[in-house]
Amino acid sequence: MFIEVMGGVLANSLALLADAVHMVTDAASLALALVAIWVAGKPPSAKRTFGFYRTEVLAALLNALFLWGVAAWVFYEAYQRLQNPPEVRGLIMMSVGAAGLLVNIAAAWVLLRSAGRSLNVRGAFIHVLGDLLGSIGVVVGGVLVITLGWTLADPIFGAAIGLLVLVSSTRLLWDAMHVLMEGTPSQLNLDHLCRRMEQLEGVIGVHDLHVWSLTSDYHVLSAHVTTSASSLEKRDHVLGRLRKVAATEFNIDHVTVQLETSPLECEENHHVSHLGPA
């Protein structure tokens, strides 16, 4: 990051400076991600019964908004340079870009293993992936400046890096907002889950089914299940099967199920059958 800042100033390169500023936000984002993971690990309390799981999502949201600000600055600077193209030192631009490319390849490889399990780590991975592609742009821009003397390559590739940052941060922002709005996890098919629960012995029907995420890898389910089981032992068996299916087949961590007696059984036992099902 520091090398790119110095290289960007010495080479007078917007592409390098854009990549450097992106790396500054990466450093802040990684620090924020670490703090969020530490806070999310704190135990629940009477005031926060689910603990601090949402801290990770809030950190991802802040990261995305941070990147929007970076993209806006890059676009403005690129416009200014397209109007008045400055002199750019292509050799410094290309050399520093190549060094940044190697660093970003190493960082992306480290984060790749956990990017699919955590929204926060995925956000960090998107940052680094953007840097990696940005470094490629810097190298190509440097080559064009050296070989063709085309100084407009610098603001053009700088704007391309800004666009890359904007696209990646918009996806991250959408994912964070989806969790905060308690949307159904994207990898879960709610109809399939409902059908699977209704296939279990003793289950007549499922309604008021809701699945949402506290954070990217912690999912919660609540549902009302109509059952034909009459004894307490049979009800416990049905409840245990429902929880096992939700946990093992659909990766749901917290399951709350309210069992309801079937209307037919209510009628047989002369229990307010005229009210019908809930």
Protein topology:
Layout: H1 2-11, H2 14-40, H3 54-83, H4 90-115, H5 119-148, H6 153-180, H7 190-198, E1 203-215, E2 218-227, H8 232-250, E3 254-261, H9 263-268
Parallel strand pairs: 2-3
Antiparallel strand pairs: 1-2
Helix pairs in contact: 1-2, 1-4, 2-3, 2-5, 2-6, 3-6, 4-5, 5-6
Main sheet record: 3 strands, mixed
- Can you count the helices? 9
H/E element string?
Answer: HHHHHHHEEHEH
Overall 3D geometry?
A: elongated
Q: Based on helices, strands and strand pairing, what is the structural class?
A: mainly alpha
> Which second-level CATH architecture of the largest domain applies?
Up-down Bundle
State the distance separating the first and last CA atoms: 61 Å
Nearest-angstrom radius of gyration? Answer: 27 Å
Number of strands: 3
Low-confidence stretches: 264-278
Query: Helix fraction?
Result: 55-70%
The percentage of residues in β strands lies in 5-15%
Which features would summarize this protein structure in a list?
9 helices; 278 residues; Alpha-lytic protease prodomain-like; three-stranded mixed β-sheet; disordered C terminus
